[in-house]
Amino acid sequence: MNRVASIAYKNIKGNLLTSFPKQFVDSLYAIYKMDCSRNLWFRKCILYMERILQNVSFKYALLKGAYLIPNVYPLGCRNSNDIDILLDEKDISNCQDVLIENGFVQGFYNPQQGIVPASRKDIVFSRINYGETIPFCKQIDNEVLMIDLNFSLDFKPEGKRNLVREMLSDRKKVIFQDGYYYSLSDNDFLIHLCCHLYKEATTMNWVAEKRDLDLYKFSDINVLMMNVKYDYEKLFERVIDLEVSKEFYFALYYTLKIYVQLTRNDALNNILRKLEPKDKRYLDFVFDPKSNQYYQYKQPFIERFNCKNREELLEVYMDE
């Protein structure tokens, strides 16, 4: 259920449970209890990573669930089995060394085979084409924790301007239990979520694997917007400064299509008006880095969002 079953349960619980079939509510409750248990395990993993990264010489920032689960969402309402770490590309090898020294293996988890080391070909392909490394895996308390190292805001390695380095220069310290870890500033965290959503929603690999428009990605943006007191003028200036207007507009434009209550946020609407591009065709594009080909949706967003196989909806884009 796009990782939002527990949110659905909490929302139903806060209203009239009797208006929903008991079997349905009971199923959501079972998922919620499992998510609560998994959250407690995940917090242990965050604490573990906090400790092994305590004295590293490179700058890093924990992303997405590693910040959202202990700091923003109620217990059980956001789950994850991986920790994303943002790094300057020059520091990837140093971070890999730290992970390997602490028992992580770069590869994939298979329930039958366990952790399977990745091939050199897969490692190079992922880094060149998707701006990510193959995950590093380690078993912790009979569960497998995966670490994803991110070094780019899109599917390509950083270009002449290193936006990741600029974000890391403004990172913040997050106090967690008996120590601390680093994450991005409030503005950059939201901007990164928007860029990440844009990357996955508009890159063919994620569309083909049906991981492009997961509801939880939009939920993350919605929950942040509802819980963080942004200085919207500074947020706007940061978007312009980082030159990510296209990505930010895409993510917020479509988040408002799903979470319509955000349309009542006048300050956010003002930002979107100022960022609105003259040519909005890109909102319907998907790019395939393997073939260097653009594809286009012709359907409205909500229709394709609800489609189980969006790849079948795509048509080759012919530049007019």
Low-confidence segments, given as residue ranges, are none
**Mean pLDDT over the residues:** 92
Distance between the termini: 39 Å
How many helices?
Answer: 13
Main sheet makeup? 6 strands, mixed
The class by helix and strand makeup works out as alpha+beta
SSE run: HHEHEHEEHEEHEEHHHHHHEEHE
Strand order of the largest sheet: 1-2-6-5-3-4
Shape from CA axes? globular
Radius of gyration over all CA atoms, rounded = 20 Å
- Work out the number of β strands: 11
Strand content: 15-25%
Q: Fraction of residues in helices?
A: 40-55%
Tell me what you see in this structure.
The protein has 320 residues and is α+β, with helices and mostly antiparallel strands. The protein is built from 13 helices and 11 strands. The protein has helices spanning 5-13, 22-52, 65-71, 92-101, 120-130, 163-168, 186-201, 204-208, 215-227, 232-242, 245-258, 266-275, 301-305; strands at 60-62, 82-87, 105-110, 114-117, 136-140, 143-150, 172-176, 179-183, 285-288, 293-296, 315-316. Strands 1-2-6-5-3-4 form a 6-stranded mixed sheet. The protein has a 3-stranded antiparallel sheet with strand order 9-10-11. The longest helix has 31 residues, at 22-52. The chain starts with a helix and ends with a strand. 33% of the residues are buried. The model has no long low-confidence stretch (mean pLDDT 92).
How is the topology of this model organized?
Blueprint: H1 5-13, H2 22-52, E1 60-62, H3 65-71, E2 82-87, H4 92-101, E3 105-110, E4 114-117, H5 120-130, E5 136-140, E6 143-150, H6 163-168, E7 172-176, E8 179-183, H7 186-201, H8 204-208, H9 215-227, H10 232-242, H11 245-258, H12 266-275, E9 285-288, E10 293-296, H13 301-305, E11 315-316
Parallel strand pairs: 2-6
Antiparallel strand pairs: 1-2, 3-4, 3-5, 5-6, 7-8, 9-10, 10-11
Helix pairs in contact: 1-2, 7-9, 7-11, 9-11
